[in-house]
Every structure is written in C-alpha cells, then in structure tokens.
Design brief:
By secondary structure, this protein is an alpha/beta fold. It contains 11 helices and 14 strands.
C-alpha cells in the first residue's frame, strides 16, 4: 500500500516560490491501477517524482507499507527504487546499448550474475512481445516497441509498484491501446500496483480502477473510475470528462440546466427527450451530449435545459427518474438571462 499524507512541494524560482503540490492525501492499494490526471501544470509529474523520492516533499510523507520513505537512508532508498520503478514518455533507453543490454542494465547495477540477468532479460522481452529484438538497438525500433523495452527494463528487478509518467503520450492511438493492454495484462499476471500519470481521460477509462483529479497541485476529486466518470462533482473533473462541452453557450436563458448521466441504460426506440415532450409537454433544449452505445446500453451524458419554472423542473425530474440507470444533476438556474453564466 502507498499512502500520501499531507504532501506538499514548493519550489523557489527567480519569480518567487511556486507551490506545485498542496496537502495531497491519497491511498493506493496493492494491485490497483490508479490514475492521476490533470491538465498541464496541475502537478502530476511532481507528484509521481515525490512518490519515489526523486523529489523530496517540502511537507508531508510518503509511506510504502507503513515505511516513511523520507526517513530512509540513501542505501535504503536504493532498495526501495528496485521495488518502485518507472517508465517515461520519452522511453529513456540507452541508445548505444541493445534491447537485451537495456533490460539487463538495472540487474547489472545490483550485481546480478550475468547469466541470470540475461535469462531474466530474455524472459521479459518475451513478456512484452519482443523476443526477436534482443540484439537490436533502440533507434531501429518504433516508439511503441521502445516503450515495450522500457517496460521490460522496469520489470527487471521484480518491482511491486510501476509508475507510468505520461507513458503513452508520445504514441499514436493504436499503439497506445496496445501498450495499455500490455500494462493491464502485467497487472493481472503479476499483481503489480500501477500508478498512471496522464492528462488523457481515455487512458484512465481504459485501464484504471481508481482515479484522482489534480488541479493547481490539489486533489479536487478522487474515487472509483466508474463513479467519478458518471457523477463528476468538481469543475476540473467535468472539464476532463466532458471536454467538448461549453456549458450554456446555446442556452435560451429561461430555464434550468440539467445533466443526464447514462450509466448503462437500455436503449429504447423512442428517444427520452422526445418522449418527455410528448408525454409531459416539456420541450427540453439539448445543449450538448456525448454518449456511446455498447451492446444495447447507453453510456455518457447529455446536458439539457428545462424551460419554465420549478413546476416544470419537478415534472421533468420525476419523468426522467423513472428511467433505469439514468441519474440527474441539476446544474444551475437562470432567470431571464440571454446567456448562461
């Protein structure tokens, strides 16, 4: 288990002090694939570097199974870094070494016998799908292949935690998908805990079971991925989950904004909004939507404006409330305004 307790990090710059992290509290359980997401400058990379003490926190503590990493000696931290390894956006491979030599490198540092290190490295190249690339140099590989070698190298010392710092940001969507599937498979096969640092909500949605949202160095929302995605509370979370929606830009200004969250509702022949108009006489204005159908079930959101006053809103909410697996968030009220604020 990894625990971050009241973690803060400040840097001193030429323009004055910068607070990169502010009182962060998180718990990552063994076997989790835990996503940490935020926009550029949110503090994600600083946070992941504090987890393995590449950056020392200004305040607070990082605990690995109850051990305060900040209290360990340099030699003890070397042992921890064999348990907590890392992969990066830029792969960070040794370009003058073969793939086999790259994977063997961390084993060489801890004086593993050469034959044992080579056997382990070849085993890992097979695990990541590159058994035939042992004697190939990184420059001869695609970006996805280089990241697979980096993953193999990170696994060489049989770590318990794998930190992924924007590990798929430099890859195309198809390659990203294959790398995420590899990480998920390694998690299933070995039980390794994975912490994924990313600005891409799709990455979190694909493989993570829990997620924390960072904004300006603080955690603004945290929980199970399904819960956070279906009911985002913080404005920063909504901006990440619903990036294509500019709320209120199409509002008439004479109603109430309501967000419908589709959590696996069964698709029907008669659309929900049209049905409400016919049966309740409430012609809602659809401001934005992002839904997808998986099988015969609907997932995603719809932002609508309910015209009229409290009575119309109450009737609309009652009607929608009878639809299984559709939840409602009342966003804001407007009174004779031309645009939403």
């Amino acid at each position: 288990m990894i625990e971050l307790r009241n973690l803060s990090k400040r840097f001193v710059t030429a323009d004055g002090p910068v607070e990169a992290l502010n009182n962060v509290n998180l718990t990552v359980n063994d076997g989790d694939i835990y996503g940490i997401i935020g926009m550029s400058g949110a503090g994600k990379s600083t946070l992941v570097r504090c987890i393995n003490m590449l950056e020392r926190p200004t305040e607070g503590s990082v605990l690995l199974d109850g051990r305060d990493l900040g209290a360990l000696s340099k030699k003890e931290m070397q042992g921890v870094r064999r348990e907590v390894t890392m992969i990066f956006q830029s792969f960070n491979l040794l370009m003058q070494s073969t793939c086999l030599q790259n994977v063997m490198f961390p084993l060489k540092l801890i004086h593993t016998p050469k034959a044992e290190a080579e056997a382990r490295a070849r085993e890992l190249l097979t695990t990541v799908g590159l058994p035939d690339k042992a004697n190939v140099y990184p420059a001869q590989l695609s970006g996805g292949q280089q990241q697979r070698v980096a993953i193999a190298r990170a696994l060489a010392t049989r770590p318990r935690v794998l930190l992924c710092d924007e590990a798929t940001s430099a890859l195309d969507p198809k390659t990203t998908q294959s790398i995420l599937e590899l990480i998920r498979q390694i998690n299933r096969d070995t039980g390794i805990t994975v912490i994924v640092i990313t600005h891409q909500m799709s990455v979190v949605q694909e493989i993570c079971n829990r997620v924390a949202i960072l904004e300006h160095g603080s955690v603004v929302e945290e929980g199970d991925v399904s819960q956070v995605f279906s009911r985002p509370r913080a404005a920063a979370t909504r901006a990440l989950v619903f990036p294509d929606m500019a709320e209120g830009q199409m509002s008439s200004g004479y109603g109430q904004l309501v967000r419908l969250i589709f959590e696996g509702s069964v698709t029907i022949d008669k659309p929900l909004i049209a049905s409400m108009a016919m049966e309740c006489g409430i012609a809602a204005n659809i401001l934005g939507a992002s839904t997808r159908t998986v099988g015969k079930r609907e997932y995603g959101y719809m932002l609508i404006e309910i015209p009229g006053g409290p009575d119309e809103l109450a009737r609309a909410l009652k009607y929608i409330g009878n639809v299984p697996n559709v939840s409602v968030q009342v966003e804001a009220a407007y009174e004779n305004k031309g645009v939403a604020e």
